[in-house]
Amino acid sequence: MLALYKSVLPGALLSYIFSTVLGNNGTSGGALYIRMVGTPEVQFYWSWPLFLAGAFLAWAIFHMME
Known about the structure:
- By secondary structure, the protein is an alpha+beta fold.
- It has helices at 2-6, 8-24, 48-65; strands at residues 35-38, 43-46.
- The protein has one domain (2-65).
- The protein is built from three helices and two strands.
- The protein has a two-stranded antiparallel ribbon with strand order 1-2.
C-alpha cells in the first residue's frame, strides 16, 4: 500500500513535464488528451491518462522493490 502513495509524485512529475513539452508545441497528444487546466491566474498543461500511466509504472517499480 505504501508503494501506491509513493507512486503519485513520480506520476505527477512525468505528466507535468511531458504535458508541458507537448502542450507548448501546440499538440493535444492524441490519446493523451493534453489540455490547459488551472485557475485564471495559474494555468498549466495536464494529462490525466499520462498521469495514470506514469503512476501505474511507478507503482509497479516500487512494488517490485519491496
